[in-house]
Design a protein that fits this description.
Layout: H1 6-10, H2 18-32, H3 34-37, H4 41-57, H5 60-69, H6 92-103, E1 118-124, H7 126-131, E2 133-144, E3 160-161, E4 170-175, E5 178-183, E6 192-193, E7 206-217, E8 226-229, E9 245-251, E10 258-260, E11 263-270, H8 272-277, E12 279-285, E13 288-294, E14 303-306, E15 322-328, H9 336-349, H10 358-374
Parallel strand pairs: 1-9, 11-15
Antiparallel strand pairs: 2-7, 3-6, 4-5, 8-9, 10-11, 12-13, 14-15
Helix pairs in contact: 2-4
């Protein structure tokens, strides 16, 4: 006869709390206890059923297993040796399937160990990153052994199935209540034994070599971008698939431009006369020289945007701008005549004249008010 559902036995719902389960058990245990049933075999059987359900549902681990697998979680060989009946649970099949799915073991054939992924750090100038280029790189790595075609076995021989794991690459180890999968110690997880190894690779199926690869760098890449070369990583052991190679881009600092996304920034020094009177100056761009018109009375720090002179995005294709910040340069190494002319110019300004120097006038007015307030 099939077992009744443990929740049904105790008369509780599947989301019942431990407190509710204990209350239900206490009520039923008093009802069916042998001391009260005077040797009634049927009622004694019900007491054992209630006790068994209680022991499972008040143990978090057992309850979780029961909710997932039902009574099969605690059966052995199709019998009913549950915790309340003195039987010993066999978790081999259950955990073999569960851990097998996670670790690649169980009854399935073990998967070949894929080769490791590699990373290559590539330094580029800003111009190279913006325009893109083809580069050749040399990568020390493991490649598939040609004489044995990656099998690891000498020509004319073949690997044999491991007798310890029978080709699974995993063995089952019991640890008290649980049965878990571990890598086979004999074949190291490959599922095969090479009795006659290749002289070139000594049974690994791969050899060390420095590969020369051509990499196409798309225009617009920036620091942190990665270019994936599928299958160009390390070759796997015994003919397993190769990993991938990731080319990590790092763009060097530029002496003129600072990049921020798709925009470029630069500081352009201008003379005092150009700032005051206006004029046209030449500024650098990645495409060559360009003309920038400076309006009269420009102040230091003013930004000028040159549209379409930035970087073309590697993803969207949109082109950023070049933003020029003008910085008024104070003249140095003046001749006596130049100093005289500046003094004459300063005299014509009439000191802190708000008409010619509105910022300076506003500043000094604020300073005067500050000191006046202090003396009050």
């Amino acid at each position: 006869m099939s077992k009744r559902d443990y929740y049904e036995v105790l008369g509780v719902s599947k989301d019942a709390s431990e407190r509710d389960i204990k209350k239900a058990y206490k009520r039923l245990a008093m009802k069916y206890h042998p001391d009260r049933t005077a040797g009634d075999a049927e009622l004694e059987s019900k007491f054992k059923e209630v006790k068994e359900a209680y022991e499972v549902l008040t143990d978090d681990r057992k309850r979780q297993m029961y909710d997932q697998y039902g009574h099969a979680a605690f059966e052995q060989g199709g019998g009913h040796g549950g915790f309340g009946g003195g039987g010993q649970a066999d978790f081999g099949d259950i955990f073999g399937d569960v851990f097998g799915d996670i670790f690649g073991g169980g009854r399935r054939q073990s998967r070949q160990q894929r080769g490791a992924d590699l990373r290559y750090n590539l330094d580029l100038s800003l111009e190279e990153a913006v325009r893109g280029k083809d580069v050749e790189i040399k990568v020390p790595t493991w490649v598939s052994c040609k004489p044995c075609d990656g099998s690891g076995a000498k020509s004319g021989s073949k690997p044999k199935t491991c007798t310890t794991c029978h080709g699974a690459g995993q063995v089952q180890m019991r640890q008290g209540f649980f049965a878990v999968q571990q890598t086979c110690p004999t074949c190291q997880g490959s599922g095969q034994i090479i009795s006659d190894p290749c002289d070139k690779c000594h049974g690994q199926g791969r050899v060390e070599k420095t590969k020369t690869l051509s990499v196409k760098i798309p225009s617009g890449v920036d620091t942190g971008d990665r270019i994936r070369l599928s299958g160009e990583g390390e070759a796997g052991v015994h003919g397993a698939p190769a990993g991938d190679l990731y080319v990590q881009v790092s763009v060097r600092e530029h002496p003129i431009f600072v990049r921020d996304g798709n925009n470029l920034y630069c500081e352009v020094p201008i003379s005092f006369a150009t700032a005051a009177l206006g004029g046209e100056i030449e500024v650098p761009t990645l495409d060559g020289r360009a003309k920038l018109k400076i309006p009269a009375e420009s102040q230091t720090g003013k930004m000028f945007r040159m549209r379409g002179k930035g970087v073309k995005s590697v993803r969207s294709g949109m082109v950023g701008d070049l933003i020029c910040k003008v910085v008024i340069e104070t003249p140095v190494n003046l001749s006596e005549r130049q100093k005289e002319l500046l003094k004459e110019f300063e005299e014509t300004m009439g000191g802190s004249n708000s008409k010619n120097s509105p910022k300076a006038q506003g500043f000094f007015d604020g300073v005067k008010k500050f000191f006046d307030d202090l003396t009050k």
